[in-house]
Amino acid sequence: MTHPKKAKRAGQVSTKGGTGKSTGSTNLGAFIADAGLRTLLIDLDPVQPSASSYYPLEYTAPGGIFELLSYNETGRDKIISRTSIKNLDVIISNDANNQLNNLILQAPDGRLRLANLMSAFDADYDLILFDTQGARSAMLEMVVLASDIILSPLPRTCWPRANSAVGPST
Ligand SMILES: Nc1ncnc2c1ncn2[C@@H]1O[C@H](COP(=O)(O)OP(=O)(O)O)[C@@H](O)[C@H]1O
Ligand SMILES: [Mg+2]
Question: Which residues lie with the beta carbon below 6 Å from any ligand 1 atom?
Protein backbone atom coordinates (compact mmCIF):
# COMPACT_ATOMS: atom_id res chain seq x y z
CA MET A 1 0.00 0.00 0.00
CA THR A 2 1.42 3.41 -0.89
CA HIS A 3 1.12 6.44 1.35
CA PRO A 4 0.86 9.99 0.06
CA LYS A 5 4.24 11.69 0.32
CA LYS A 6 4.73 14.09 3.20
CA ALA A 7 7.14 17.03 3.00
CA LYS A 8 9.89 16.89 5.63
CA ARG A 9 9.63 19.82 8.03
CA ALA A 10 12.64 21.38 9.73
CA GLY A 11 12.51 24.21 12.28
CA GLN A 12 15.37 26.55 13.15
CA VAL A 13 14.85 27.49 16.79
CA SER A 14 16.73 29.12 19.63
CA THR A 15 15.64 31.13 22.63
CA LYS A 16 18.27 33.70 21.70
CA GLY A 17 18.54 36.10 18.74
CA GLY A 18 21.64 36.46 16.60
CA THR A 19 22.68 32.81 16.71
CA GLY A 20 22.51 32.30 12.93
CA LYS A 21 19.00 30.88 12.47
CA SER A 22 18.04 33.03 9.49
CA THR A 23 21.47 32.69 7.88
CA GLY A 24 21.22 28.93 8.37
CA SER A 25 17.67 28.47 7.11
CA THR A 26 18.09 30.70 4.04
CA ASN A 27 21.40 29.15 2.99
CA LEU A 28 20.28 25.62 3.73
CA GLY A 29 17.07 26.30 1.80
CA ALA A 30 18.95 27.56 -1.25
CA PHE A 31 21.48 24.72 -1.09
CA ILE A 32 18.77 22.07 -0.94
CA ALA A 33 16.64 23.78 -3.61
CA ASP A 34 19.70 23.94 -5.84
CA ALA A 35 20.10 20.19 -5.36
CA GLY A 36 16.63 19.78 -6.87
CA LEU A 37 14.33 19.43 -3.86
CA ARG A 38 11.24 21.63 -3.92
CA THR A 39 11.72 23.79 -0.85
CA LEU A 40 9.41 26.14 1.02
CA LEU A 41 10.88 28.57 3.53
CA ILE A 42 8.40 29.99 6.04
CA ASP A 43 9.59 33.11 7.84
CA LEU A 44 7.97 33.04 11.28
CA ASP A 45 10.00 35.88 12.78
CA PRO A 46 7.68 38.90 13.14
CA VAL A 47 10.36 41.15 14.63
CA GLN A 48 13.36 40.64 12.34
CA PRO A 49 11.92 39.10 9.18
CA SER A 50 15.29 38.80 7.47
CA ALA A 51 14.54 35.47 5.75
CA SER A 52 11.73 37.21 3.83
CA SER A 53 14.15 39.48 1.99
CA TYR A 54 17.29 37.32 1.82
CA TYR A 55 16.69 36.49 -1.86
CA PRO A 56 15.06 38.64 -4.54
CA LEU A 57 11.45 37.66 -5.22
CA GLU A 58 10.23 36.90 -8.73
CA TYR A 59 6.65 36.76 -7.56
CA THR A 60 5.50 38.53 -4.41
CA ALA A 61 2.29 37.08 -3.02
CA PRO A 62 -0.14 39.56 -1.48
CA GLY A 63 -0.16 37.62 1.80
CA GLY A 64 2.21 35.82 4.11
CA ILE A 65 2.27 34.20 7.56
CA PHE A 66 -0.47 36.51 8.83
CA GLU A 67 -3.01 35.13 6.37
CA LEU A 68 -1.68 31.58 6.80
CA LEU A 69 -2.07 31.56 10.58
CA SER A 70 -4.96 33.89 11.20
CA TYR A 71 -7.23 32.88 8.29
CA ASN A 72 -5.86 29.36 7.59
CA GLU A 73 -5.13 30.61 4.05
CA THR A 74 -3.06 28.11 2.07
CA GLY A 75 -3.79 29.33 -1.49
CA ARG A 76 -0.60 29.25 -3.51
CA ASP A 77 -0.95 32.60 -5.28
CA LYS A 78 -2.25 34.25 -2.12
CA ILE A 79 0.58 33.50 0.31
CA ILE A 80 3.50 31.81 -1.48
CA SER A 81 6.15 34.07 -3.00
CA ARG A 82 8.70 32.74 -5.49
CA THR A 83 12.39 33.55 -5.07
CA SER A 84 14.89 33.98 -7.88
CA ILE A 85 16.33 30.59 -6.89
CA LYS A 86 14.80 27.66 -8.73
CA ASN A 87 12.79 25.37 -6.40
CA LEU A 88 12.89 27.87 -3.52
CA ASP A 89 9.62 29.52 -2.46
CA VAL A 90 8.97 31.61 0.63
CA ILE A 91 6.04 32.59 2.82
CA ILE A 92 7.06 36.00 4.00
CA SER A 93 6.65 37.36 7.53
CA ASN A 94 4.03 40.11 7.39
CA ASP A 95 2.95 40.24 11.04
CA ALA A 96 4.13 43.84 11.42
CA ASN A 97 2.07 44.47 14.56
CA ASN A 98 3.21 41.25 16.19
CA GLN A 99 -0.35 39.94 16.63
CA LEU A 100 0.20 36.30 15.78
CA ASN A 101 1.88 35.32 19.02
CA ASN A 102 -1.19 36.40 21.01
CA LEU A 103 -3.50 34.68 18.57
CA ILE A 104 -1.55 31.44 18.95
CA LEU A 105 -1.62 31.78 22.74
CA GLN A 106 -5.38 32.28 22.83
CA ALA A 107 -6.77 30.08 20.06
CA PRO A 108 -7.77 26.59 21.26
CA ASP A 109 -5.78 25.02 18.42
CA GLY A 110 -3.06 27.70 18.59
CA ARG A 111 0.12 25.68 19.04
CA LEU A 112 -1.08 23.00 16.62
CA ARG A 113 -2.26 25.34 13.90
CA LEU A 114 0.95 25.26 11.86
CA ALA A 115 1.22 21.45 12.09
CA ASN A 116 -2.40 21.12 10.98
CA LEU A 117 -1.96 23.43 7.99
CA MET A 118 1.21 21.90 6.57
CA SER A 119 -0.43 18.96 4.81
CA ALA A 120 -1.76 21.53 2.29
CA PHE A 121 1.83 21.83 0.99
CA ASP A 122 2.81 18.16 0.90
CA ALA A 123 2.04 17.73 -2.80
CA ASP A 124 4.13 20.75 -3.86
CA TYR A 125 7.22 20.49 -1.64
CA ASP A 126 9.84 18.00 -0.48
CA LEU A 127 11.12 20.18 2.36
CA ILE A 128 9.57 22.92 4.49
CA LEU A 129 11.94 25.08 6.56
CA PHE A 130 10.69 27.26 9.41
CA ASP A 131 12.72 30.26 10.50
CA THR A 132 11.80 31.73 13.90
CA GLN A 133 12.44 34.61 16.25
CA GLY A 134 15.01 33.98 18.98
CA ALA A 135 12.60 34.07 21.90
CA ARG A 136 10.72 31.74 24.20
CA SER A 137 7.22 32.09 22.77
CA ALA A 138 4.03 30.30 21.77
CA MET A 139 5.18 30.71 18.16
CA LEU A 140 8.37 28.78 18.90
CA GLU A 141 6.39 26.00 20.58
CA MET A 142 4.09 25.89 17.55
CA VAL A 143 7.11 25.44 15.26
CA VAL A 144 8.52 22.64 17.44
CA LEU A 145 5.17 20.82 17.25
CA ALA A 146 5.07 21.19 13.45
CA SER A 147 8.65 20.01 12.84
CA ASP A 148 10.12 16.58 12.12
CA ILE A 149 13.63 17.93 12.74
CA ILE A 150 14.80 20.80 14.94
CA LEU A 151 17.99 22.71 14.20
CA SER A 152 19.37 24.99 16.90
CA PRO A 153 22.55 26.85 15.94
CA LEU A 154 25.01 27.68 18.70
CA PRO A 155 27.44 30.58 18.26
CA ARG A 156 31.04 29.66 18.99
CA THR A 157 31.00 31.78 22.15
CA CYS A 158 28.48 29.30 23.64
CA TRP A 159 30.76 26.31 23.20
CA PRO A 160 32.04 25.19 26.62
CA ARG A 161 35.73 25.60 25.82
CA ALA A 162 35.48 28.23 23.10
CA ASN A 163 37.12 30.93 25.19
CA SER A 164 39.91 28.78 26.60
CA ALA A 165 43.44 29.01 25.20
CA VAL A 166 43.22 25.43 23.94
CA GLY A 167 39.82 25.68 22.22
CA PRO A 168 37.54 22.77 21.47
CA SER A 169 39.20 19.39 21.14
CA THR A 170 39.09 17.75 17.75
N1 LIG B 1 28.24 30.92 10.49
C2 LIG B 1 28.37 32.23 10.66
N3 LIG B 1 29.60 32.80 10.72
C4 LIG B 1 29.74 34.12 10.91
N5 LIG B 1 28.71 34.99 11.03
C6 LIG B 1 27.47 34.50 10.97
C7 LIG B 1 27.22 33.10 10.80
N8 LIG B 1 25.89 32.89 10.79
C9 LIG B 1 25.33 34.10 10.97
N10 LIG B 1 26.26 35.07 11.05
C11 LIG B 1 26.03 36.51 11.26
O12 LIG B 1 25.45 36.67 12.55
C13 LIG B 1 24.43 37.67 12.53
C14 LIG B 1 23.12 37.06 13.05
O15 LIG B 1 22.73 36.03 12.15
P16 LIG B 1 21.20 35.69 11.90
O17 LIG B 1 21.18 34.53 10.96
O18 LIG B 1 20.43 36.91 11.51
O19 LIG B 1 20.75 35.22 13.36
P20 LIG B 1 19.30 34.93 13.93
O21 LIG B 1 18.40 34.68 12.78
O22 LIG B 1 19.47 33.72 14.80
O23 LIG B 1 18.90 36.14 14.73
C24 LIG B 1 24.33 38.16 11.09
O25 LIG B 1 25.04 39.36 10.99
C26 LIG B 1 24.98 37.06 10.29
O27 LIG B 1 25.57 37.58 9.12
MG1 LIG C 1 16.61 35.60 12.31
Answer: 14, 17-23, 50, 134
Please name the residue ranges forming H helices in 59-161. 65-71, 76-79, 100-106, 113-117, 138-146
What is the CA(117)–ligand 1 centre distance, in A?
29
Q: For residue 130, what is the enclosing H or E element?
A: strand 127-132
Measured in Å, residue 8 CA sits from the centre of ligand 2 at: 21
CATH superfamily for domain 8-158: P-loop containing nucleotide triphosphate hydrolases (3.40.50.300)
Q: Whole-prediction pTM value?
A: 0.92
Give 140 Cα–ligand 2 centroid separation in angstroms. 13
* Atom 1 (ligand 1) nearest CA: 20
The model's pLDDT over 36-51, given as tens digits with 9 standing for 90+, comes to 999 999 999 999 999 9
